[in-house]
Every structure is written in structure tokens, then in C-alpha cells.
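hey
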């Protein structure tokens, strides 16, 4: 991730009251670990992260503790009731989508639909779900969720074919895992969960869109074979908007030795500056397919 100042946008937030979902998420992050931290000079304006007091270069803007980072390894090791069993359902099958994407999407969908407290409070990501603005209008920007009329503008393009295959692949992946879950529940008398606990397709489809557009590569827990390709969701950091500017190599996100993730400024950020990250050098079709713009 590379962080750029955007001083031309006069985004001032000092007079605004922070939304409740932001306050809850910040409290969750800072209370989950002694090192959890969100810089007090960060505010939210129209879901943009904005600096309301000047910040020096190389300042830590956020430090997200491992307990607040949804990743495959963390969930499997800390949620034996649903997470570990879900991992067994997904493994060793060919899928259209990446197994990590499917696993995280299904677990978040499970928590989205399950309003009861988890028996293990080390794996409760509902404060994170509250930051996602899960309204229909906010999630219909990915092309695979467009109507047929909207997709007609892509007629004749290779992207349209990819979108159609994606829609079929997502449905097939869900059905395969759902059937494996039902089979496991039928053979497990002491599961702690039931067939009905499996997320609905609507919730899964929504969360898969979230994962595909927000997940960060090489940020998952390093406990599993030191796999640097493990993906993870990074609460609050994923609110930063994309900006592709001049080539700068000083990455400003870092997975620390304790598996927390820090976001650090790589320049002086003046009051009113929006925090923006880059998703990397991607083509227009890739940006549209994965991020909806």
C-alpha cells in the first residue's frame, strides 16, 4: 500500500460528529489489544478518511491488532465451532473462486446473519461488518451484480464473458460447499452448529463482493506455513480510497511480528487531506471487475 496526500481536496471534518459505526470500530480495535491504535486526527467525511490536524511523515495512522483482522488462519484457530468446520468443508475441492475468498466470505456471512454472541469473543468481527455500509446501492457496483440492461453496455467485450462465467462459478461454489456442510452436519452429533447455520446465498454473495473488492494480499496471519500470499480484511484501512499517482516505492502498510498491521504516512499530511491508498497498477477492466470503477 502506498499513501498519498490529496491537499487539493478541501475536506475538513473537525466540526463533524463521528458516526456511531466509526466510534464502535475504533473502540473495538483499541480495546482488543494494547497495541491497537487509530490516530485521533483521523475523521470520517462521507465515508472518506480525512486528516483534521497536520501529521508528520512516518507517523503511524493505524495499528490493527491480529484479533481484529479476518483471515483464514486466525478464524480456523480461534473459532472451532463454525470456522474450523467450515475449513474442512472447503478443503480439497476444485472451485471457480479462491478458497480463501470463499472461506472469509462465508464466515463473515455467518456472523452477519447470526446476531448471538460468539462463545469465543476472540473471533467476533461484527464491529467490522458495521463499517461496510451494507446497503443494496453500495454493493451493486460490481459488474456481476448489474442487471442485464446494465450489462448490455459491455456487449462484445471479453469482460462480459468473464462476468457471466463468474456469476455461474459463484453459484456453483456455494452449492458445493453447502452440500458438504449438510453432509458434515448429518455425520456429526456434537457439532455445536446445524445445517441451518450455513449462510444464505444472498449473504454469501454480498460478503464475497466485499472480500473480492477489499481483501489485502500478503496481510493474513503468518502462522500457516509462513504463506505470504494469505489474504486478510483490514478494518478501517479498507475505507481508504484508491489513488494511482507517480511511482513511489515506500510502502506504508506493514504486517508486524505479532501479525498486527500498521498503516504509516509516507509524507506530511496537512489538515483536510484525504488518506488514499493504491491498489497497485491494474488495468481498467480489472478495476471494473474487482472494484466496480
Amino acid at each position: 500500500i502506498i499513501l498519498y496526500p490529496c491537499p487539493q481536496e478541501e475536506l475538513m471534518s473537525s466540526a463533524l460528529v463521528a458516526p456511531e459505526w466509526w466510534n464502535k470500530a475504533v473502540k473495538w480495535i483499541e480495546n482488543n489489544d494494547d497495541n491497537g491504535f487509530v490516530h485521533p486526527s483521523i475523521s470520517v467525511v462521507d465515508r472518506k478518511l480525512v486528516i483534521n490536524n497536520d501529521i508528520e511523515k512516518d507517523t503511524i495512522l493505524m495499528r490493527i491488532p491480529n484479533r481484529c483482522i479476518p483471515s483464514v488462519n486466525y478464524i480456523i484457530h480461534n473459532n472451532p465451532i463454525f470456522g474450523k468446520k467450515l475449513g474442512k468443508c472447503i478443503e480439497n475441492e476444485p472451485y471457480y473462486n479462491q478458497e480463501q475468498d470463499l472461506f472469509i466470505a462465508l464466515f463473515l456471512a455467518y456472523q452477519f446473519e447470526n446476531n448471538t454472541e460468539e462463545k469465543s469473543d476472540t473471533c467476533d468481527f461484527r464491529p467490522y461488518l458495521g463499517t461496510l455500509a451494507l446497503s443494496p446501492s453500495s454493493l451493486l457496483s460490481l459488474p456481476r451484480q448489474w442487471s442485464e440492461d446494465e450489462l448490455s453496455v459491455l456487449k462484445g467485450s471479453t469482460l462480459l464473458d468473464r462476468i457471466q462465467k463468474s456469476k455461474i462459478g459463484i453459484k456453483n461454489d456455494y452449492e458445493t460447499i453447502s452440500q458438504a456442510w449438510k453432509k458434515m452436519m448429518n455425520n456429526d452429533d456434537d457439532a455445536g452448529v446445524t445445517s441451518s447455520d450455513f449462510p444464505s446465498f444472498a449473504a454469501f454473495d454480498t460478503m464475497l463482493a466485499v472480500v473480492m473488492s477489499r481483501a489485502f494480499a500478503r496481510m493474513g496471519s503468518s502462522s500457516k506455513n509462513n504463506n505470504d500470499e494469505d489474504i486478510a480484511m483490514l478494518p478501517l484501512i479498507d475505507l481508504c480510497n484508491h489513488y494511482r499517482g507517480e511511482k513511489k516505492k515506500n510502502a506504508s502498510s506493514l504486517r508486524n511480528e505479532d501479525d498486527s498491521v500498521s498503516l504509516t504516512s509516507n509524507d506530511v499530511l496537512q489538515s483536510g487531506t484525504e488518506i488514499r491508498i493504491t491498489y497497485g497498477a491494474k488495468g481498467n477492466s480489472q478495476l471494473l471487475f474487482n472494484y466496480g470503477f
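The first strand starts at residue 3 and ends at 4. The mean pLDDT is 82.
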